[in-house]
Structures are given as structure tokens and as C-alpha cells.
Amino acid sequence: MMETVMSHTLENKDVFAEIITNNAEMFSIFQYIESIAQSPQPVLITGETGVGKELIARCIHRVSAVNGSWVVVNVAGLDDTMFSDTLFGHVKGAFTGANLTRRGMIETARGGTLFLDEIGDLSLASQVKLLRLLQEGEYLPLGQDKPKYTDMHIIAATNVDLWLLQRKGKFRKDLNFRLRTHHIHIPPLRDRLEDIPLLVEHFLEEAAQALRKKKPTPPKELSVLLKNYAFPGNIREMKAMIYDAVSRHKSKVLSLDVFKEHIDQGHKNNFEMLEENISAISEFHPFRPFRELPSIKQATHMLVEEAMRRSNGNQSIAARMLGISQPALSKRLKSRAKKAS
């Protein structure tokens, strides 16, 4: 219902068709994209890895209806020289081995869109050059004294906190402000739980076609299991999980084993990270707000209750959340019910 109502307010519904969602915040992002589509100012897209930042950037390019090309540059790992050569190009003889003039990605993107991914990894020296490009629309190919000008649109993306980098002196304040003239933050998948069943169906269909298999039937427990996983890799991680499950699939109903293995490994990695960072455990300890600590028995009861709530009463999934066997959880529940009666 939400998708139907919200999509009616969009003028470019087809542009966003590739993004599988029924989330109100995502539809608000689509509306915002349409409102800024004709603006020549830069756009900064933020969000965790795997949320679809490049997909959103392509939507901006398509809605803007510019005549030029869509050009992508991942700046991670580029030192200042490589960044300058990649973006600005060079003239013949600019440096040893420069036997031919090379036009940069900026010239390729003329009249179109240049998407700079992983912008938080850009060196300070390169940040100065990018700021000049944004402010003046001019740049210097390596080995050339006369500036060149461009009319392309710049979209940048990052999964790191630029404000934090700025405070640490690793990102220029003026560039940070300039880039986020228009800002889009994409919510993580764990905040878009209503999208999980839609994405499961979409990737099952896609994986089946890609692997030339019949689309398997997902078990009813799958959505509940996935909704209780944090998905640090977001949609990209879910896609990988489903492709792996379909590749191993041999019966009519899709097995949960691949998903359980992946989630167990994810939980193990999270706990190992917390154990390595005692300060994080102290800062976010769930019992810190309590004036009086619950007893072990009370705390266990609270954990069991919450696990059963999150799993919609599925003991197998609840037990997996708690790190115990299903028989052990069943024994606890029976004991509690016996005492209550």
C-alpha cells in the first residue's frame, strides 16, 4: 500500500524501479532526488557499505537528464599523482613515460556526471584540487599551465563519517561543507525490515535465473531469521547469502543452513570485535542505565523473553540468538511455565 501511495507522488517512477523497497524513508529520498535533480551543486551520499550508494547516485544522474556520460572513479588507494592523472589527465611529456596525451575522467564526464566513490579516503593534497574544481569549475591536466573548464555534475559517496575525519584533521572543513550542499543518507537494511521479504524474493528470482535453476520456495522462518540479523554488509551481504544458498539448493524448499552458518559467523565476529574493544562494551553496556542490577536469573529471563519476542515464538531461531541449543531453551521455557502454573 505504501509503495502504491508514495510512488504516485514521484514523477520519475521508472528511474527508481531498480531499487527494491517499501520503506518510507527510501521513498522520501526518491522525492528529495527529484527536488534537487536540476541543481548543479554537488551531492554527498553517505551510508554503510552495501546499502546501494552507487545505485542512488545513478538515479540522480538519470533524473537530472544530463546529456553527458556517467563516469565512476573510486578514489580509495589513489595517491595525489594518480588522482590527478586519473581525473585531470596529462599532456605529452608531462612525466617520464607520458608519450601520449591522456584525457582524464573529468573530460570524459563533460556535460554528464562524475561519481567519486570512497571520497573519505582522498588525500589532503587531492582534496585541495577537488575543492578548486568544485568552486571554480577548473582544473589543470598534468604538465599543462593553462586551466581547463568543465560543466559536469559531481556526486560523492562515503561510508565513513566525514565530520569525524574533519575533527581529526584528515578531511578539509571547506570541502566537507561544499560536498554536502545536497546530502542523502541511506538507511541500513536493519532499519528497513519491511524490505527484507521483498529483497529475498527479488534475489531468489535473480539467483535462480543466473544459476539456471528453478526458483526455490523460501521457508517461512527465513524472514524472521534475517530480520534478527544486523547485516553489517547490508543488501550486498544479503545478495551474497541468497546466491550461495541457491547455488547449494537441491530440494523444493530452500534450506536455512547457509543462512544460519553465515549469521553464526557474523555473530562470532561481532563478539570478537567487542572483546577487543573493552571501552565499547563499557559505553554501550545494556545494564548501565539500571540503578540496581538484575540477578542472573532475572537477566536470563529477560533475554529469553526478548529472544522469543524477536523470533515470533520460533524456538529454533530464539535459541540461535541466545547461543544455546533448542532443547536447552525448550527446557527453560517448560520450567518457567511449570512455575507460573
Automatic annotation (TrEMBL):
<dbReference type="GO" id="GO:0043565">
    <property type="term" value="F:sequence-specific DNA binding"/>
</dbReference>
<dbReference type="InterPro" id="IPR027417">
    <property type="entry name" value="P-loop_NTPase"/>
</dbReference>
<protein>
    <submittedName>
        <fullName>Sigma-54-dependent Fis family transcriptional re gulator</fullName>
    </submittedName>
</protein>
<keyword id="KW-0804">Transcription</keyword>
<keyword id="KW-0547">Nucleotide-binding</keyword>
<dbReference type="InterPro" id="IPR002078">
    <property type="entry name" value="Sigma_54_int"/>
</dbReference>
<dbReference type="InterPro" id="IPR058031">
    <property type="entry name" value="AAA_lid_NorR"/>
</dbReference>
<dbReference type="GO" id="GO:0005524">
    <property type="term" value="F:ATP binding"/>
</dbReference>
<dbReference type="Pfam" id="PF02954">
    <property type="entry name" value="HTH_8"/>
</dbReference>
<dbReference type="InterPro" id="IPR003593">
    <property type="entry name" value="AAA+_ATPase"/>
</dbReference>
<dbReference type="InterPro" id="IPR025662">
    <property type="entry name" value="Sigma_54_int_dom_ATP-bd_1"/>
</dbReference>
<dbReference type="InterPro" id="IPR002197">
    <property type="entry name" value="HTH_Fis"/>
</dbReference>
<keyword id="KW-0805">Transcription regulation</keyword>
<dbReference type="InterPro" id="IPR009057">
    <property type="entry name" value="Homeodomain-like_sf"/>
</dbReference>
<dbReference type="Pfam" id="PF00158">
    <property type="entry name" value="Sigma54_activat"/>
</dbReference>
<dbReference type="GO" id="GO:0006355">
    <property type="term" value="P:regulation of DNA-templated transcription"/>
</dbReference>
<feature type="domain" description="Sigma-54 factor interaction">
    <location>
        <begin position="19"/>
        <end position="247"/>
    </location>
</feature>
<dbReference type="Pfam" id="PF25601">
    <property type="entry name" value="AAA_lid_14"/>
</dbReference>
<keyword id="KW-0067">ATP-binding</keyword>
